[in-house]
């Protein structure tokens, strides 16, 4: 493809994309294809001869689109959203155009320097404590996902715990003895989370090669972890000869957007400073742009790391998971290995940041560009208005649900534009059966996409109004469909 052919094709693609967005509400949010549909309509082998762009472009609409779930549709209220915006897309386009796997500063100084600047902007926007900014010992790095951020921190936490233990033991060891003793310590390490924490912490512990335990939390505390529950778990594990070394606390769990009790957990951390505490705010963290949520941040200076995905709720295209640490040395001590070919005078003199030492992969994408474009296009006030709009839609949804308290129960307090409800019924078993049937009707109709989940023992339906194109009309439609389905299942006379 020559420059002029690219110019033509890209102009057409922009036209196709804007048309797609302008008319997205008219497409069914969920596809109707059967598994294996694509293999039946695509050739089994790659083309021997070059194909025209026109032909490839036509296949986008005829072959790919029928198999797409339209996450940007206003009828998408499932999971958590995956944000998209035109400035975000422009960032992706430029990143693809420049294609620099900027693992160190020298690879492209602008990539590293812009990332440091925008991460400091994000930290300020979210009112994170100053210790997470780059001007001190901390700083931010853009990761691909919240799961990646957790594994990265877990490895740093593991190594920090082992180093501190060896220092406390104060015995002079040969390299081999040190390796053996480190392996012994590692075998006792336990990562902690609650039953409601995202599964990425358990997966991270598997990857980091340590144990994992989950702590029970109570519905009466909206499933948020309390300091006393944490303390009891730590004491129990220690009495068994095990060493808790990592804890994920949540600002917005996946099922119900539960928030752990940061104040009492921070007190426990004072007694156990070697346990790394990571704040997983993958989805809800961006709500901290609003001053009314910033009271949570005052406890974060007791914790080691914080992560939020701008690509979930803040208009930035996938992927932009913003990880902040209090002490960047914790990451670089664990992750920095410098073979000769990566050495250069700037890194050797410690003049620059090399983000390869803050992450698992070596190469990295120019993700800071889209974050920069988004923040500048909206401004902090614009981003606040964006979040507020979704919270208002959630308020509307909650008031609609409450207006039919004969049909529905909201099972945990609505939070961060997420409502979790069940159709009403006298016993839990009956309620679960009814909820399943209501969900199946909604799922089969494909007019709106919701997710179901198990909350404690209750089978529940989740409705999220945080999609960039979420609208009052969409919310009212989802509610109407839920009412119709519940009335059908409960056989209510209309
Ligand atoms: N944490 C929470 C609370 C989540 O809801 C999710 C995913 O939805 C994750 C972590 C994992 O996110 P990622 O896909 O970025 O790894």
UniProtKB/TrEMBL annotation:
The modification N6-(pyridoxal phosphate)lysine is found at residue 312. Keywords: Decarboxylase, Lyase, Pyridoxal phosphate. Belongs to the group II decarboxylase family. Pfam families: Pyridoxal_deC (PF00282). It comes from the Eukaryota. InterPro entries: Aromatic_deC (IPR010977), PyrdxlP-dep_de-COase (IPR002129), PyrdxlP-dep_Trfase (IPR015424), PyrdxlP-dep_Trfase_major (IPR015421), PyrdxlP-dep_Trfase_small (IPR015422). One of its GO terms (biological process) is carboxylic acid metabolic process. One of its GO terms (molecular function) is carboxy-lyase activity. The lineage of its organism: Eukaryota, Fungi, Dikarya, Ascomycota, Pezizomycotina. Its cofactor is pyridoxal 5'-phosphate. SUPFAM superfamilies: PLP-dependent transferases (SSF53383). GO terms for cellular component: cytoplasm. This is PLP-dependent transferase.
């Amino acid at each position: 493809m020559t420059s002029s052919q690219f110019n033509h094709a890209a102009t057409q693609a922009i036209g196709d994309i804007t048309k797609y967005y302008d008319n997205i509400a008219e497409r069914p949010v969920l596809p109707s294809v059967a598994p294996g549909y694509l293999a039946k309509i695509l050739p089994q082998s790659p083309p021997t001869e070059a194909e025209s762009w026109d032909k490839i472009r036509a296949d986008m609409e005829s072959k790919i689109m029928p198999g797409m779930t339209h996450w940007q549709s206003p009828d998408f209220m499932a999971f958590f959203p995956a944000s998209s915006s035109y400035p975000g897309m422009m960032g992706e386009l430029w990143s693809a155009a420049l294609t620099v796997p900027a693992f160190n500063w020298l690879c492209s100084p602008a990539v590293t320097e812009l990332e440091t600047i925008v991460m400091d902007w994000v930290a300020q926007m979210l009112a994170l404590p100053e210790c997470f900014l780059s001007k001190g010992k901390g700083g931010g790095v853009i990761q691909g996902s919240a799961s990646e951020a957790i594994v990265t921190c877990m490895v740093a936490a593991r190594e920090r715990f082992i180093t501190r233990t060896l220092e406390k033991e104060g015995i002079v060891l040969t390299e081999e003895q040190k390796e053996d003793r480190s392996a012994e310590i590692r075998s006792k390490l336990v990562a902690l989370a609650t039953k409601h924490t995202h599964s990425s912490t358990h997966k991270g512990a598997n990857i980091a090669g340590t144990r994992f335990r989950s702590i029970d939390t109570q519905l009466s505390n909206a499933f948020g972890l309390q300091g006393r529950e944490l303390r009891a778990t730590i004491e129990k594990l220690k009495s068994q000869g095990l060493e808790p070394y990592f804890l994920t606390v949540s600002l917005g769990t996946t099922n119900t957007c539960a928030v752990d009790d940061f104040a009492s957990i921070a007190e426990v951390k004072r007694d156990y400073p070697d346990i790394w505490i990571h704040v997983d705010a993958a989805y809800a963290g961006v709500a901290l742009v609003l001053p009314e949520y910033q009271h949570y941040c005052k406890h974060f200076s007791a914790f080691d790391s914080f992560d939020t995905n701008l690509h979930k709720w803040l208009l930035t295209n996938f992927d932009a998971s913003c990880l902040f640490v209090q002490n960047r040395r914790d990451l670089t001590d664990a992750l920095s290995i410098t073979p000769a070919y990566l050495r250069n005078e700037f890194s050797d003199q410690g003049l620059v940041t090399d983000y390869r030492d803050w992450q698992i992969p070596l190469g990295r994408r120019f993700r800071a560009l889209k974050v920069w474009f988004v923040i500048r296009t909206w401004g902090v006030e614009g981003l606040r208005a964006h979040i507020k709009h979704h919270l208002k839609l959630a308020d509307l949804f909650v008031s609609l649900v409450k207006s039919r308290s004969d049909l529905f129960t909201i099972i945990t307090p609505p939070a961060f534009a997420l409502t979790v409800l069940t159709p009403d019924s006298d016993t839990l078993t009956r309620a679960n059966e009814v909820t399943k049937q209501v969900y199946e009707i909604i799922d089969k109709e494909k007019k709106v996409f919701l997710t179901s989940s198990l909350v404690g023992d209750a089978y529940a339906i989740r409705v999220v109004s945080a999609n960039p194109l979420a609208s009052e009309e969409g919310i009212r439609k989802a509610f109407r469909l839920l009412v119709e389905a519940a009335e059908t299942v409960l056989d209510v006379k209309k």
